[in-house]
Specification:
Largest sheet: 12 strands, mixed
Number of strands: 24
Mean pLDDT: 84
Helix content: 40-55%
Number of helices: 24
Shape: elongated
Strand content: 15-25%
């Protein structure tokens, strides 16, 4: 312990004696460890931390696998298939099903809440217990509810007497059974669940349809059962279902995956990419610090020689050097944690709408332990090389050379140069990644969305089944609201839709074209996205009509049934001919005649190609008028109509809350949130790494010039011009940059797989991006070497040689 205290005292004295070097090293380490700690906080909460359920590693999601339009993908499950899985499997302890929904919570201020409808065993499967009251029982009907802790505190003031009381959900009384504990949420998603209600599965026609898939399935593995065993068991069960029901098709299957994998599937690639990027930034920071310590160690040769002559062994000297580097690293990590606190808040603010478990991201004890461990590791890594190099020569030789100024040895300069080349290569990898994402983001923004988002206000309303009779929903609610909206000053057009562009699908399925055979295999049947819209919808979003007409007042409830399709639908199902005039069966037993073809809209995302879509007039399918979105096209600021829009809904139904009120431009921006967050962070890391690499290159070139002053003086005395000396210095720097660029491009090619799923319209080996990276690195190298080159060009040979 005494020896350790002595080492610490000497380390602090040495760091104080070289304040400039210490400050630069601390800045590098603070930036590197701060960025690493911030990203680790996010990765830990989203990807690593245990989910708030009992033994979450044994929980799995089960999906149906189906082939649609040549693409095999996962889907929700049908009720009969879920029931067969639950009854025939041998590896699952219990299987539950649920469906997402939303409800209007009654009260003095109506509130829209997110609801999960789950089978009575849902909480049993999750191994979750309420903090108040109880969970579902098989005897509970759909008139009961369990509240989240968040809703309980915000709406009911954490009143413990809420259990047993009645709340109104869509106007229907629900008895509160219990309140879940803080931190519990299911399913794991960016949007939190406010309440859970029982899900009954009566033997209706829809629930007996094996091609009607709308249930999400969660299950718990039996003790000792592996995921592979469960997959084999479900494959066998699915094969039996397929054999008993050949109408499902040969491609019908089941997918079993860990519960967490399904929750983080969309954000995992971005988080892994950012983790790799921030690791490279840390390596660059460590390389910079190692260069600083190497340069400083060269100036401590006399100190080392004296201590060695006085009896200090090499191990003792190495320990002292490592103590200094660890103290430096721990101090830098402490500063980095302060930066991480701000960084975490920024990441959560930017990504809250797309990051599941964003509220669990925090800098806590495990994160601090990570930062401390990272500091110890980096301290040992960047301190080892300088320590070994500074202590490897014999004491007598060092004493003999200590009084003579010599040029740095080739090995010393080689080590410094190697570290700088590595820093440049790592910076090149980050720059290439950021450049590819930037090019991809530009391609996404330039993609034809199919609509014009400018000047459009949008908001959502949910119409409970009990609020109006089915045949009155359009006439008593939708039509009056639209009439009031269209009468507002500055409104160009107003309409209603069942699904806003760039939003998840709200309905899809097979349909039959009149005059074409009906395929026995459901996987090969025509398939499309279904949308319900009112007249004026396409004018509101400036969606052009390619052929025929759009919907209008002629398409009333008692009129002949009509439909519009998009261009993708027409190309796929009516190639080489007009779709107008054809009829199809989509919603009802009566066919709908196609009266128009509209421009394709990117319904699922700016980076997702448009799918085949069918639009039905709202007045003709009132049974589908429940969750609806209104769009209002204005000539001015759309948000200025927020209050009048709420009033329009309130006049038609005072108890219905208006929610998700925003502009269409913000909807577009929200759909790009994950891409934008990834681009901003990766671009920031690339800029930071490039800055650190430039600083490292500047230091190495400056150190080289200082060590070669005698050589430069001799060259000038022999007739070399200042411009020749400057060109020599810049040339050496460019050589280092060229090596770094070559290695960086090779590294970028090797790491392209991390980016593949995040790119759109850009190849991972995009030549313009790598040319731009080369240009940026060339400018950076020239800028970093300019000052040392000017200093070298001004060396006075007389003064230099006299000093030698």
């Amino acid at each position: 312990m005494h020896a350790l205290l002595v080492d610490l005292r000497l380390a602090l004295r040495s760091l104080r004696a070289h304040r400039a070097t210490t400050a630069i090293a601390l800045a590098c380490l603070a930036l590197g460890t701060g960025a690493s700690t911030a990203i680790f906080s996010v990765v830990r909460a989203v990807l690593l931390e245990r989910l708030p359920y009992a033994a979450p590693e044994r929980l799995v999601r089960i999906h149906e696998l189906r082939t649609r339009q040549g693409v095999r993908d996962r889907y929700a499950a049908s009720v009969p298939n879920f029931q067969d899985w639950r009854a025939t499997n041998r590896t699952l302890a219990d299987v539950a099903a649920y469906a997402l929904a939303s409800r209007n919570l009654g009260g003095t201020e109506p509130l829209r809440v997110q609801v999960v409808r789950g089978t009575s065993n849902l909480f049993t499967v999750l191994g979750a217990r309420p903090q108040l009251g109880r969970a579902f029982r098989p005897s509970d009907d759909e008139g009961t509810a369990v509240l989240s802790d968040r809703l309980w505190r915000a709406r009911f003031g954490a009143d413990r007497g809420v259990v047993g009381t009645t709340v109104l959900l869509d106007g229907v009384p629900h008895t509160v059974l219990g309140v879940m504990p803080p931190g519990f949420d299911f399913p794991v998603a960016a949007e939190h669940t406010d309440a859970w209600i029982p899900l009954a599965l009566p033997p209706t026609r829809e629930n007996a349809d094996r091609t009607s898939y709308w249930l999400s399935v969660v299950a718990r593995l039996r003790d000792g059962v592996t995921l592979d065993a469960a997959r084999a068991d479900l494959d066998a069960a699915t094969a039996r279902i397929r054999q008993d029901h050949p109408e499902l098709g040969a491609s019908f299957g089941a997918l079993v995956e860990p519960l967490r994998d399904g929750a983080v599937r969309t954000v995992r690639p971005a988080l892994l990419l950012l983790s790799a990027a921030v690791s490279l930034v840390l390596f660059v920071a460590c390389g910079n610090v190692a260069n600083l310590l190497l340069a400083r160690a060269e100036g401590r040769r006399r100190e080392v020689a004296i201590r060695s002559a006085l009896g200090a062994g090499r191990g003792r000297l190495v320990r002292q050097f490592l103590t200094e580097s660890v103290v430096l690293a721990l101090t830098g990590a402490a500063l980095g944690v302060l930066l991480a606190l701000a960084g975490v808040q920024g990441v959560v603010t930017l990504g809250a709408a797309s990051l599941p478990r964003a509220d669990a991201v925090r800098v806590d004890v495990p994160v601090l332990a990570f930062a401390a461990g990272l500091a110890l590791l980096t301290g040992l890594v960047f301190g080892a090389v300088p320590a070994l190099r500074a202590t490897r020569r014999a004491a007598g030789r060092e004493l003999a050379e200590a009084s003579v100024r010599t040029s740095a040895g080739r090995a010393q300069r080689g080590t410094l140069s190697t570290l700088v080349v590595a820093e440049i290569a790592l910076s090149c990898v980050l720059l290439a990644g950021a450049g590819l994402l930037l090019r991809s983001f530009a391609r996404v923004l330039a993609a034809d969305a199919g609509f014009d988002a400018r000047g459009v206000l949008t908001f959502r309303v949910n119409l409970p089944e009990e609020r109006f009779a089915v045949d009155e929903r359009y006439s008593r609610f939708v039509a009056p609201v639209l009439a009031r909206l269209r009468a507002l000053p500055g409104v160009r057009a107003a309409a209603m839709t069942s699904a806003l562009p760039l939003q998840p699908s709200s309905g899809n399925g097979s349909f039959r074209i009149v005059g074409q055979p009906w395929d026995a295999d459901p996987q090969r049947r025509p398939f499309a996205e279904f949308r319900v819209v009112s007249d004026g919808y396409f004018r509101s979003l400036r969606v052009s009509v390619i052929e025929g007409r759009e919907l209008d007042a002629r398409d009333a409830a008692g009129a002949p049934k009509v439909a519009l399709v998009n261009a993708a639908f027409a190309r796929r199902y009516f190639p080489g001919e007009s779709a107008v005039g054809h009829a199809l069966y989509a919603w009802e037993s009566a066919p709908s005649t196609i009266v128009g073809v509209v421009h394709s809209v990117r319904q699922l995302g700016m980076d997702q190609d448009a799918r085949a879509e069918v639009y039905a007039p709202a007045a003709q399918v009132p049974q589908r008028l429940r969750a609806m979105t209104f769009v209002v096209s204005t000539t001015g600021d759309p948000l200025a109509l927020a209050a009048p829009a709420r009033a329009a809904v309130r006049d038609a139904a005072s108890d219905l809350p208006v929610y998700a009120l925003t502009t269409m431009e913000r909807v577009v921006a929200a759909s790009l949130l994950t891409r934008r967050l990834t681009l901003v962070l990766l671009g920031g890391f690339a800029a930071l790494a490039l800055t650190l690499a430039a600083a490292g290159l500047y230091g190495v070139v400056s150190y080289g010039v200082a060590q070669r002053r005698r050589e430069i003086g001799v060259r000038v005395a022999l007739g070399a011009r200042g411009v020749d000396i400057g060109r020599m210095v810049v040339g050496d720097a460019l050589a280092l940059g060229a090596w770094g660029l070559a290695l960086g491009i090779a590294g970028s090619a090797a790491g392209a797989r991390l980016l593949a799923g995040l790119l759109y319209g850009v190849d991972a080996a995009d030549p313009p991006t790598f040319l731009a990276v080369a240009a940026v690195l060339a400018v950076t190298v020239l800028a970093a070497s300019a000052v040392p080159a000017l200093r070298a060009a001004r060396v006075d040979p007389t003064v230099t040689l006299r000093a030698e």
